[in-house]
Amino acid sequence: MKSALEQGRTSITSLEKGSWTSRTYREAVLKAIHAVVPYDAYCFTTVDPQTLLSTGAVTEDGIEAIHDRLFINEYTEDDVHKYADLIRSNKPIALLQASIHAMPERSLRYRSILQPAGFRDELRAVLICDETCWGYLTLYRKADQPFFSEEEGQWIEEWTTSIARMLKRTSLSLMDEIKQGSPADPGLIMITDTFQLLSSNDSAQYWLTQLQRLELVGPDILPRPVRAVSSHLLSQTLSSAVSSELSAKSPSKVCIQLLDGRYLVLHASRMQQMTGPDQIAVRLEQAMPQDLLPLFAESHGLSVRERELLGYVLRSYSSKEIAAAMNISAYTVQDHLKSIFAKTSVYSRRELIWYFVSRFQLKDDRAV
């Protein structure tokens, strides 16, 4: 008769032979784990391996109800077992009660979020394949259930490589799921320099309708984001007419979140006519999770070094750790941070993290 460890390993690894979408695979993993390691609630999140930002979660109502507080805690509060900390420490598994049972004050997440919601313990796993993280798995037990045991944690750790490998394999299907319902081709519209619509393709008409719904305007109104990127293009054109420093120009691009959670990128460029006045072309297409952080950084004019530093901030690095990673002084770190604060109109590292991270809650089911 198979041990619980062997039973779980067989159940998890056998899933690698199936044909799955990202969501159906995660649902199957949760079912297989529950047969060996019981839990009362869960959150199974895929992440962009470059930024560690969530690309959607399979979760349930008990956790969805405290989603916002967990999200804020993860990115803006000091606490134990942060996902980014687990990745850096090369310890893929963390048991909450095993760490805090003698000192519950060590975890704000436990005191102010989990315990009031009726949860007693939490098991966290970071899912790493080929030294790259593809997701987080978090299991919860209610107040009337036993703590997660060290043995159960070891079992989950045994299975993380297989799970991460499948998250990597199904990442392309996740992108297809996120794009479901969106046009396959990019939208393209042509407008005059006074913002009169001249022509558009079917994809552009679809995205214009989404923007008009967002702004609560009629079909005869050109949405503000279109006018905004076009105005930026015109201002850049005027500035280049009096200056030859074309390298200083920033792209006429904006990223907008629609009502259903999707992100739309608009990019304006000037079309030089052989005869007659020039026209403005605006390209509209859905942004993918891996595109969003660079887009937001670009839209705020962050330098290459500032973008690099922002990446470390989002991974919860301290100023000292950032200085070591970037081979700069702690004073230079603070100078970069002050510049980023000014460009994004925030006043602290906590506000900066929340400003960026709160925009990346893309959903493939219900996101955490």
From TrEMBL:
One of its GO terms (biological process) is negative regulation of DNA-templated transcription. The keyword Lipid metabolism does not apply. Residues 295-360 form the HTH luxR-type domain. SMART domains: HTH_LUXR. GO terms for molecular function: DNA binding. Pfam families: GerE. Keywords: DNA-binding, Transcription, Transcription regulation. PANTHER family: DNA-BINDING TRANSCRIPTIONAL ACTIVATOR DEVR_DOSR. This is DNA-binding protein. It comes from Paenibacillus illinoisensis.
